């Protein structure tokens, strides 16, 4: 179903709008949003010298994160749940 109001999956190009909508949501909840997103922007992380970002994505989110440049780690990731 195309047109206004149609539902579709988010893609990499939607990241900026999704971030904006997140801020709108927090403002609507009465939260102070000044600087809310600063620490999580990929560009900010690059400028801050962060070398690696590890992310655990579900299958629905994986295509979005891959489109943003996330790749499989070179070695297996292991987790121990206690």
Notes on the structure:
The chain has 82 residues and is mainly α. It has a domain at 12-67. It is 32% helix and 0% strand. It contains three helices and no strands. The chain is extended, with a radius of gyration of 16 Å. The N and C termini lie far apart (46 Å). The model has no long low-confidence stretch (mean pLDDT 79).
The unreliable regions are none
Q: What structural category do the secondary elements indicate?
A: mainly alpha
**3D shape:** extended
Give the oligomer, counting copies of the same chain as homo and different chains as hetero. Answer: single chain
Helix content: 25-40%
State the distance separating the first and last CA atoms: 46 Å
Biggest β-sheet strands, sense, barrel:
none
What is Rg? 16 Å
Order of helices and strands: HHH
**Mean pLDDT figure:** 79
State the helix count. Answer: 3
Number of E-type strands: 0
Q: Please state roughly what percent of the residues sit in beta strands, choosing from under 5%, 5-15%, 15-25%, 25-35%, 35-45% or over 45%.
A: under 5%
